[in-house]
């Protein structure tokens, strides 16, 4: 009979090993899924994980895309991980991402067609502020009234989506767009366009910001008192309270920070790869980032790697859609499976499995 | 704008229809939470139920079989959550989110071939005499059978929780799982059953949207109904009858804003569509003062050591 025994300390070996195990298990389960859809599983896995990076025909297009997709995922996930560490659950990053894009693009469009160096920095501030304010709603309600931040932040995603629709049909609609929904394309407005920093690499300001966020989070969590309070609150809430950690301050900081980062991600996306505010601007990065945060074990470096891996499944998924006509929903399912397996094998980090003979009564 | 186009009888009647999905899903989640488990995957189970019910109804031509399939689909999906949280002892918040993300992916994969089809219609009941009553007949007595099923479910859950041994044990497990374990109750088994009941209810609620309320299949069609159902449980302070009250309140807001859209109110459609979510937030804020009623072991991991 199997018996679980709690480890006195979480296993360090398994803490690193479980994400890898989850990826392998997901590949196996995903392979079975693809086989059930009538595709060759080995080929499908190769197209998703190998071809975007190493296939001569596609790699020149796919490799830059890797950074383009990983940037927002990493940036959002870093922000979320701060709160998740302390048991503060912001799951409305998608909404904060939308608001960051709306406010940031709004600032840029307000200056159109002025050509000045300060337009883009102002947009960045606008984007950060938009996301931050949207996240402050659940934060303040939680602090003031004890309202559940999970439900409020999520409800605000749906409100944000409606706001996005209203903006692309109304206030921010391109006046020269022949009546089509959607804003002016920022690609045609150089002062506001978030162009590639090095041509052909996919590296834009958002990706750079994501890397900076990783470093920032690493220093915060390992070298700063506030980071210590976050970790302490997550691991031993009672001890944290006795040691004088102010829980309200943590809520405001963690939710605010994750909103700010999601807002930035939205701004860099709308001013760069996407180019315009449109009804279907958001593509679920805010939700996928939750998977990224967990896959990276809420550790900044882990999140960096997890973000790249998740970006790979996006690009590989698109490629598989093209090459094998694999439905896009299959990739979504694949990403969901990854989180499932991760949570399941995480058991091994905190518990030991023992085989014991059943005692005779 | 023409407000006189809104008929009070039809408004109230469609309120009952609009409330039914979140009512059924909400009462299921209430049972889960009374057993001490927080399953945030309601949205995922609802959408899975929606597509299971829809697909089976198209294939068999029978909505009744479709609803059964939806319940089975929701329960099977919730079993994944049960395995994660009860056997792998995973964090319930994260597992619930995983369930929602997984369910959304699964449903859009399953639903690919069903976009644009029309399911067999579920007939409205015609009760002799009662259905012919003026006003009340339209409002109360000429709905499909699932509306009454939802009401019966609330009554049944209330009675079972309040008056039966099963209900007492379930509540004991939810209030203090260590004490319940010490008394010899099978905490994990009871919770797994509660989770599956919740899953089946969420599946039924989802199928109600795809089979009766809309009736059509589109990706992500539950549009947050699962989360509203979760909010409903908090709103209800974990009391069954209050779930009914809350569901009708939200149903009322939804129907009213749809009617106002149709009547051509001067407010843009998008802002009206926001209102159910904003009202949910508002109600959550008002209710969050009363936290005393939450089951004691809600969301905590149970591991019988020794």
What does this structure look like?
The complex is a heterodimer of chains A (361) and B (306). With 361 residues, chain A is an all-alpha fold. Chain A has a single domain (38-326), classed as ABC transporter involved in vitamin B12 uptake, BtuC (Orthogonal Bundle). Chain A contains 15 helices and 2 strands. Chain A has helices at residues 12-36, 41-49, 51-54, 56-85, 93-111, 119-145, 149-169, 205-223, 225-235, 237-242, 247-271, 285-295, 300-324, 328-345, 347-350; strands at 2-6, 351-355. In chain A, strands 1-2 form a two-stranded antiparallel ribbon. The two termini of chain A are 15 Å apart. The mean pLDDT of chain A is 85. Chain B has 306 residues and is mainly alpha-helical. Chain B has one domain (3-112, 143-287): ABC transporter involved in vitamin B12 uptake, BtuC (Orthogonal Bundle). Helices cover 69% and strands 0% of the residues of chain B. Chain B has helices at 8-34, 42-60, 63-87, 92-110, 136-140, 145-163, 165-175, 177-182, 187-213, 225-235, 240-263, 269-287. In chain B, helix 3 (63-87) runs antiparallel to helix 4 (92-110). The longest helix of chain B is centred in the N-terminal third of the chain and has 27 residues, at 8-34. The radius of gyration of chain B is 19 Å and the shape is globular. The N and C termini of chain B lie far apart (69 Å). The mean pLDDT of chain B is 84. The interface between A and B is large, with 48 and 45 residues. Chain B: It is a multi-pass membrane protein. Chain B: It holds the Pfam family BPD_transp_2.
